[in-house]
Amino acid sequence: MNNDISVLGIKVDLGIYKRGANNGPDAIRKAGLIRGLECKGYNVYDEGDWDSDVELVDYLNDFNNVSLDIRIVTKEFERLANKVKNFCTTDKFPLIIGGDHSISIATIAGISLNYNNLGIIWFDAHADLNTPDTSLSGNIYGMPLAVNLGYGYPRFLEVGYSGPKVKHKNIVLVGTRELDPGEIKFIDNHDIKVFSMKEINRKGIENVMIDVLDYLGKKCDGIHLSFDMDVLDPNYVPGVRTPCSDGVSLSDGIIAMKTIRESKLLSSAEFVEVNPKLDVNQQTARNVVKLVENLF
What catalytic reaction does the record list (predicted)? Predict the structure, then answer.
């Protein structure tokens, strides 16, 4: 992490209901992201928003007819993965703002092309480990981590390159508290490390993050932070599509970001699932800015 930061917005929303996450990048910038980082002494290079050939907002509405749209989405995700790959090759720290969490299918594919053993810190109320066979909703934003581990729609598994983009042992879930039955089975079968809210409340967020960073830092040559805003308690994030009670407090989120910063291990980051249509007085977008400012 250095004094130069590149910011890339990704306007994607592949959810079936509560649309609006595609407007997240605009809301986060409006809440003062660039200005806030510059006031802390950073050189911020706003690369604007990824220019997709088609607007990835209105696809995948019909779960029963989803195969008709997979080819379109996959083509765009291929382009996005290549964009992110190049985005991460400069000397600037890559900061991505979404968009819903489905963008991680492409962002992690692109980021992983720059590392031999990428680690992922996945802050999320949900595991996003569903596949088409286990998903109760059919929403793509509930599947990206499974795809990056090599499970899901075959076309998605080819994004960036064929096969898994990250190893099971290189993923840590933090703040997870709402899991589908198929995801619980997946985690148990693959021995994925999870720090639930129960663990955070018992050990304290700083100790949890020290454990996370120690676990990944010993074996990974890069660490990517994927932060879904619904990991925070709904009191702090009214503008998310899938709020989940009893979440991480904003103060704990800030402590977590400071702990990551002090480790000097982070190589890239993304913040997703801000829906300004659901937000109240820009509270969710402003809290993204607070988290990012403390991450740097």
Answer: L-arginine + H2O = urea + L-ornithine
Q: Does 168 appear as a known binding residue?
A: no
Does the annotation list 126 as a binding residue? yes
* Distance of alpha carbon 58 from alpha carbon 162, whole angstroms: 26
Sign of CA dihedral 257, 29, 226, 161: negative
Summarised one tens digit per residue, pLDDT across range 252-269 is: 999 999 999 999 999 999
CATH of the domain at 13: 3.40.800.10
* Sheet order of strands, 43-49 included: 43-49, 4-10, 93-98, 266-272, 222-228, 118-123, 171-176, 193-196
| Count of structural domains within the chain | 1
Write out pLDDT tens, residues 39-88: 999 999 999 999 876 667 655 544 444 444 788 889 999 999 999 999 99
- Report which secondary-structure segment, H or E, holds 86: helix 67-87
**Is position 101 annotated in a ligand binding site?**
yes
Omega before residue 99 within 30° of 0, cis: yes
Could you tell me the CA-to-CA distances from 40 to 54, 80, 159, 295, 296 in Å, in that order? 36, 30, 36, 11, 8
State yes or no: 224 annotated in a binding site.
Answer: no
Q: Running DSSP on this structure, what letter comes out for residue 248?
A: B
In angstroms, the CA 18 to CA 16 distance is: 7
Q: Which amino acid is at 197?
A: M
* Cross-strand bridge partners of residue 270: 96, 226
Q: Is 128 annotated as a binding residue?
A: yes
- Tokens standing for 172? 């840590």
- For residue 253, the enclosing domain spans 4-295
